[in-house]
Amino acid sequence: MNMADRLEKTRMVSSQDAEALRWLWAFGEMIANTDMHFGNASLIMKDFGKPTFSLAPAYDMLPMLYRPREGELTSPQFTPPLVASVSRWEGARQSALQLWEAATHDERISPEFREVCARNRETLGTTTRGPRLVSWRQQ
């Protein structure tokens, strides 16, 4: 059970916010955000009398797979997660494809990294061709 499931089960967040939190996780996976942690999602208290919260706007959502390591830029291979091929996450996949496509053509980004973005867009685009991950939990 993930944190969104726990928050939803205890009614600390609405089902809608729990689903949005799951969507953000899936999107982050599809943009190579390898630095997602509990500090990347914030909740806003709705009622001071009981622990109920709403999800705050997203932040710190970027492809950390490519962060400089020991002062050196690297371009490791991006491998989309299996969740990318599940129809439930198609909206997150489409948003990630849009991000990679926009970055491919953004001239503020170096030509070398735009090539990485183009490869990632192609890689993520092929996730619809192949085996599907079957979820045991339907919602």
What can you see in these coordinates?
With 139 residues, this protein is mainly α. The chain has one domain (3-128). It contains 4 helices and 2 strands. It has a two-stranded antiparallel ribbon. The chain is elongated and about 55 Å long.
Q: Whole-number radius of gyration?
A: 17 Å
Main β-sheet, spatial strand arrangement: 1-2
Low-confidence stretches: none
Tally of extended strands? 2
Note the quaternary state here: single chain
Query: What characteristic shape results from the CA principal axes?
Result: elongated
Order of helices and strands: HHEEHH
- Derived structural class: mainly alpha
Q: Count the DSSP helices.
A: 4
Brief digest:
With 139 residues, the chain is mainly alpha-helical. The chain has helices spanning 3-9, 15-30, 90-105, 111-125; strands at 43-47, 52-55. It has one domain (3-128).
Give the key terms.
139 residues, 4 helices, single chain, mainly alpha, elongated
What is the strand and helix layout of this fold?
Blueprint: H1 3-9, H2 15-30, E1 43-47, E2 52-55, H3 90-105, H4 111-125
Antiparallel strand pairs: 1-2
Helix pairs in contact: 1-2, 2-3, 3-4
